[in-house]
Amino acid sequence: MLVNLVEILKLAEEKKCAVGAFNTPNLECVNAVIDAAEKLDVPVIISHAELHEEVSPLYKIGPVMVQAAKAARVPVCVHLDHCETLDYMAQALELGFTGVMYDGSTLPYEENLANTKKAVAMAKACNCGVEAELGALASREGGAASASGPVYTDPDEAVVFCRETGIDALAPSFGTAHGIYKSKPVLDLERVKVIAEKTGLPLVMHGGSGVSPEDYRTGIRNGLRKINYYSYMSKAGTNAVKELLEKQDVTFFHDLALAAQKAMQADAEKAMRVFAGL
Fold first, then answer.
1. 168 belongs to the catalytic site
2. CA pair distance 115, 112, nearest whole angstrom
């Protein structure tokens, strides 16, 4: 069942839980995530990051994602993650995406504000919800180090930004990082609570893979309603393929793809259970 970002975040707010947002750059990822959500009967977000354009072009994977969402037995939002240009966002909207995340976090504040306003106007015309980012994580999408390191979101600045842009969800910076963590992240979860209370909007955790269940639960109590998760799910798929190749001489690629898919589904299920409070 295809729903938009606003609708799926409303479901999370009603249950005081978070919905998982999983990058799905290929069919195995799409199947793994939706199968996990259907098994647990929870809503889910499947995302395509602009970073993955070389892995799987939007014009190819986008229609697959939208069709899979329509056919799913649970609410599914099809989301564009970390979109840095409005032209790229327009492509996703034309394909029927129901959520977009405009990322102007590396731009000067005023430029980020102006572009986010344009993104909101474009998306609202297509009945699509909008997420934006304020502050900067310790690493960029894909795990590359940020040029300036983490820049924590100022709660008062967040209030103004949310009010002036009209966004539906905010991704604040509070200590997470994209990619695989080399050490346990130290999160400012009190900042999450303050921002949620001041803005009144659902908040989003980027760099969600690798966070402890305890920190997830605290973050959700403090206002997180969407948690982005991909790196550790993808790594689970890689590990499954390695293990299969060590055990036997595999002839057909689809056997490797299926092994990865099953492992990613299992990992996604573990994350969804925590996010949904199951």
1. no
2. 5
Distance CA 193, CA 190 (A): 5
Instruction: Name 11's Cβ contacts closer than 8 Å, sequence gap at least 6.
Output: 19, 43, 75
Q: Sign of dihedral through CA atoms 262, 66, 26, 136? A: negative
Q: Which residues pair with 80 in a beta bridge?
A: 48, 100
What are 181-215's pLDDT values in tens digits? Answer: 555 667 899 999 999 999 999 999 998 777 899 99
How do beta strands 224-229 and 129-134 pair?
unpaired
Mention every residue, 6+ apart, whose C-beta is less than 8 A from residue 35.
265
Residues 156-188: pLDDT tens digits? 999 999 999 999 999 998 887 765 555 566 789
Of 35, 41, 81, 255, the catalytic one is 81
CA distances from 97 to 56, 63, 167, 230 (A): 16, 9, 16, 19
DSSP string spanning 40-87? Answer: HT--EEEEEEGGGGTTS-HHHHHHHHHHHHHH-SS-EEEEEEEE--HH
DSSP codes, 84-104: --HHHHHHHHHHT-SEEEE--
CB 235 within 8 A of CB 6: no
